[in-house]
User: Fold these one by one.
Assistant:
Number 1:
Amino acid sequence: MYAFKKKSIDESISELEKWQSTFDISWLLILKVANQTLATGDQMIATQERLPNVTEGLISQSHPKPEADRAVFLRPDGIDMSTASLITFCEARHFTKGSESLILDSLTCSSTSKISRSLVVKDVKSLAQKLYAHQDPGYGLFKCKGVLKRDTRDQNEDQLNFTLVFKVPRYLLEPRSMRKMLLRAECPNSLSEVVRIGQELAKAVSYIHLLDFVHKKICPESILLLRHIEKDYLAAYLVGFQKFRKDGGMTSLLGSSDWPQMLYCHPKRYGQRPEDAYIMQHDIYSLGVCLLEIGLWESLVRYGESGQLVPSQLIKDYLPSSGMGSIESLKQHLVMLARTRLPRRIGSKYAEIVETCLTCLDDGNADFGDESEFLDADGVLVGVRYIEKLR
């Protein structure tokens, strides 16, 4: 038994040592800066000569060429939504047609403002184009086949409904939500597989930011785990784009006081009128909460007998609704769990990464205390500096 555990721990240590090389997409961000600032004349030619050929495809994925403005919107009769299978504890659905496997991820725009609607259409189209160019090089995101668009009317209000259609690689089967896996304690085969799941989620979030979007809904319900039939491990993919928007785009400054959503929100984003506009670092905080659950392999949210959401024993006394806790005390408790529970479960390196995510906006944080260090015109260097801190 000792030999088996030691082997598992050694594998996890090896995986953590590879974290930098597998998670590090800072060089992609640097290439993005180069593409933006050296895009003229001889300077661009010289830059292209210095960059490996492989970078051309990576740069083009984040900035598709004009010909990528293909027919993004699909024919509605091509996919019968009513035959799609529900995925437990996830808003996305699974659709199969012959040998084709698709994930259907829907979002709704209820705004009556023409400006708001046009911005949503623009963002949906842009995301679909960029993820269409995406070749799934291991960044935890599906390739987008296109978008279904339809107009509906609900309670005398016109609504725009979009469904992002994602292609599932043929070597991935049985999409299940991470929430379901955590609740049923269906543990991966080894600690190294747990680390890999955390890595893939971190890379997916970083790649979304590389594409100039914020996700705004990172939680276990927005993460799918699929079985890789060739390598026999669980692969993590990020979905749940119901609230995404262009980074730096229009924000309504609307938050949520619903505790399950609040659990994954930074304290300054809590409540119906949050203090701060949503920025990329708020996604990083949500990522930290998810990485904590992954490392512990324990859900912080449970479902009661009648289907109501209830907090787990780990956090129930720290919620504002408990009468004893507050949104800030909950955050501090999550940091404490990362410090005390994660090291003996999965190692100190993983625990440090989780704590870094949870405290990324803290004024007194040794790594991120000086906010001016992370400010630049396009936000790209913010990403580079942040990833450097995660090494």
Number 2:
Amino acid sequence: MIKWKYLFSVISISIMLIFAIFFFGGIMPQTTLNGVVEQNIKPKREFKTIMNGKYQTEYSNWFADNFPFRTYIVKIYDEIMFNTESIVNGVKAGKNGNLFGEYFTKQSLIGTLDKIQVDNYARNLKFIQDKLEERGKDLIYIITPSKAEVLPEDLPWNYRAAYYSLNETANIIIK
């Protein structure tokens, strides 16, 4: 057990030492990241900015974007998140390269409306239609399916069971 603790300590310190050598040596191996990337420029060291605390904030922002191997670490992290079908920026990867917005997918899987809710919804639409007709306007109401309803076979694995059980419930209600 002590051997493993020693080995872990040596490896950790070695990695930190390598990062320190790269950083203080001015060696910043980076690659480009695609997408929207806001570059922070390295702040100039001035007495006034150091005293009012602005330099520390600007330097922290710059360093967060420019530490050695940052772009490689970001790319590896994104690849792991994508391949494990985790949510990245509210988007989840499904089968066949399809991407599903988490919010809309969950909304389509919440459940079916009962008869009272549907009747209430229809009454509200009829009210709106009547008010628009009084003003000489037409109401055009378009119901579109979500991607989850059109491509259920491509849903991420953790949404598929909810989709199929929801459809079974809906079929029972319709019958």
Number 3:
Amino acid sequence: MIRQATLRDVDAVAAGYERLLSHEAATHSYTNWKPGIYPVRQDAQTAAENGTLYVLEEAGEICAGMILNQHQAEAYREIPWQYPAPPEEVLVIHTLSMPPEMAGRGYGTRMVRFAMEEAVRRGCTVIRIDTYVGNLPAQRLYQKLGFRISGRKVVNHHDLFESELYYLECDLKGVRPMNETIRQLIARKSVRVFEDRPIPPEAKEAILQAAVNAPTAGNQQLYTILDITDPELKSRLSESCDHQPFIATAQMVLIFLADCRKWYDAFTAAGCTPRDPGAGDLLLAVSDANIAAQNAVTAAESLGIGSCYIGDVMENCETHRRMLELPAYVFPAAMLVFGYPTAQQQEREKPRRAAMKHIVHENAYRTMEAEELREMFLPRCGEKGFEAWMQAFCQRKYNSDFSREMTRSVERYLDDF
């Protein structure tokens, strides 16, 4: 969550400055900031008092900070800006920073995007920032988000040290503020490579709380969640679920079971004479289980934790029934693996989705003709073309051995219903 900071956050922000500067002193200085000169605790204190300090907080920890205001230093007046604007229409990002251990997690991108949207909310038309000419990671980040370099200048900081800076700006026309939850839902992509970093207990608790409070049919919660903490069991699942090693190394593994058993047993215990669960009960329970799973995904995403659905848990019915001790009327609807994504996973492009016009039909189902189907899938086909891509996908996925095994396995589960 990105929010306006309070005075209680100042110590954490200042400690982040110190850790960053100590790290740069021992390695390489990207910022060219100087310990004891800039930035210091008083900078964060003053900004918090003025209401211009913003922080990114996850699981109770301050992960990044920045100052947003409309103050343009003297040097800004000498830059040949590509997007001239009156001062009241310009928002400036200052002192965007994070401790070194928080680098590579996408926090910088989130902070800059927030700043851009905050600028639009305030009625600004341009957003500006300066950065040290040697800070290549920051330059790549800003330019990726639409900033342009408009000038370069050597500045003197309080007669204490000089720094050569790039001055960047972004035209905010076309930028529309987006709710952070909606942004994360749209941007979310599967993560299959995780940092070797544990998920804090409080984060895990929050994810599970979100799952068990998901919408549910008639408040029945027709699911049970298996929290797989046994490393040996995770390893076995990584083999039985299509030989995917990243399952074994994930920091958290949850299996969402469509559970018609517990209500059947409760009815019996209460002296009722319940009918046997049927296919409709199973589909309702699968729906409940998957809604709970998606709540867990969304909660994790809000905490900077990535996830990946593993549909292969529906395969190998006999093996998984024994492994997970599943009784009749219980079906493994989904498995999720969680962990902090590596920088590469954060930066990789999300696979393209079909255009909304092909997915959303008004009032009644509309069977699409071949030409419209071609139009829908063509953006995914690349150089292969529609026919070749479809044939390869059909062979690799739909007609594959694992797909046939999934169908066989699910049919065995259906025998109970």
Number 4:
Amino acid sequence: MKRKLKYAVILAGLMGSSVSMAATGDAVQGASGTINVSGRISFTTCSATIDSASQSFALNRADISGAAAGASLASPFTTLTLNSCSGYPLTAKVTANKPGTDSMTGLLDGDSAGVLGYNVGFSAAAGVTGGVGDNHEVPVDGSAAATPLSIIPDANSYALKMTTYVKRVGSAAVPGDLGALTGSYTYTINYL
């Protein structure tokens, strides 16, 4: 009897052990899945300098009154120098502090009648495509143009001209109190 009990205990131990042991190569429950990895490589060698953050223009009432709606009356500009950006595709966005009723026009403070507005365009000797028209204008509401602006510098010191096109908006009479006008916009140059 002792012998039968001894064999029964050994047999029970072996059976219990086989239940708790997994076969080699079996996955541990909950220990498999998918990891999504993403990243962004930035080109820290590309930089920009601006020659002036101020643009100014002077107009007389007769020039404004005689201009057709949409006519460009002044075009002050600033030059951005893009350094070590040769061959890197870039784009630009502009956000006016006072956008007009359409995405392309910014308005000026001090113009209560809304007779003047502005558009912003980019140009260079080569490498600028897209935007709107020959001036490669971009929306001033921060959105992308229907034909996105593309800037591909062809030199490590690349001059990019950013022009503010002051234009006649509508056909309202020029008010007698029209004098000092101010406005501003924020520009951003990004990698494509």
